[in-house]
Amino acid sequence: MTQSASETWSVRIVVPETSSLDAAGETFDLEVREDETILAAARSAGVWLPADCQQGWCTTCAARLVDGDVAHPNARRYYDEDREAGFVLPCTAKPRADTTLIVGQYDDFLEFRADHGRPPGSSKLDT
Amino acid sequence: MSDEKAHGSGAVEPGDTSKRVGAEVIRERGVDPEELREKLIDAIGAEFTTYYYYTNLRMHLAGEEDYKEITEDARLEDRAHFELVVPRVYELEGSLPNDIRDFADRASCPDAEVPTPMDDGGNFDTSDLEVEDILEVLLEAERCAIRTWSEICDMTRGADPRTYDMAQRILNEEIDHEAWFIELLSKERDDEINPAGHFARGEPGDAPYSTNNRFNDSA
Ligand code: FES
Ligand SMILES: [Fe+2]
Ligand SMILES: [Fe+2]
Predict the structure, then answer these.
(1) All structural domains of chain A
(2) For position A73, what pLDDT does the model report?
(3) Is A89 near chain B, with CB under 8 Å?
């Protein structure tokens, strides 16, 4: 299906039961424009997702892509192996299809980065 | 006064120097002092790297004396932000990484590199370097800093007034810095008047909110 640049995609955000976020156990369905980040869309819809730099660098916002597709045109530190393992950074991720994300994956992502010798995991965890 | 209150310092026995009440009071209020401390190391890593990178950005604003002076101000204030918070890391029983590469890698904000490739001789290829591109790097660095210190304000609000006080002092200056670079970039790139609206700061590096000279004369 082809859509024009101003189209929106349906994005489902799953907050795990075990998350420390207030919304633990909840699922949110948002319409997100192709030129909008998933984090910005969520926060403007009143869904508070974790983030810090909002430049695709710090990994605070890390999530897992379980369905769909996103692009990270402005992320400052996003590697091919992140994409291959299904990790995404909602602060800079823009939808390219109807998409489902599991948020609150910072700890797992830090370990994943450390295992691959990538920052910031490599500098924050002893592995 | 209840008995409970008299023993309000929680799990720290009288005379026990292996624990700090200064950290336990934070834990009692629901914030993990270790997690906070690690976040502070990331945040001051970013202050330290921007202090470094702004040196280079400033150098490359060649001939733009007013831009250089403002960048110098932001640069020295980032050093002040680093120095304001370093003692807090140690109070919370942390330390700076031994390897500066680890410190830079874990910084919570991106490297603010000069926005130009290197030439074949390993020097900056400045042939296409535009002033507005440097101003944009500066602006985005300030925006990241605002987000980081806002996060730390959120983490500490109502639980750790000492760290909160530091974070909000720094945040005050980061918001000033964003306003400066919005004004300069608007004029330079778009020929648009977009005033920061600020009065004179004093000397570069005064860091009116955040200098730790007022807390620590030896700094
Ligand atoms: S908030 Fe820093 S990478 Fe997303
Ligand atoms: Fe700063
Ligand atoms: Fe700043």
Answers:
(1) 8-124 (3.10.20.30)
(2) 96
(3) no
Map out the domains of chain B as residue ranges: 30-109+127-190
In 10 A of CB B146, how many CB atoms?
17
Task: Name the fold adopted by B30-109+127-190.
Answer: Ferritin (1.20.1260)
Say if residues B115 and B131 touch (Cβ distance below 8 Å). Answer: no
Ligand 3 centroid, distance to B77 Cα (angstroms): 7
pTM of the model: 0.93
A75 lines ligand 1 (CB under 6 A): no
Other CB atoms within 10 A of residue B78 CB = 31
3-state secondary structure chain A: CCCCCCCEEEEEEECCCCCCCCCCCCEEEEEEECCCCHHHHHHHCCCCCCCCCCCCCCCCCCEEEEECCEECCCCCCCCHHHHHCCEECCCCCEECCCEEEECCCHHHHHHHHHHCCCCCHHHHCCC
Band of residue B6 on the pLDDT scale cut at 50, 70, 90: very low
Quote the CA–CA distance of A60 and A49 in Å, as a whole number. Answer: 10
ipTM: 0.94
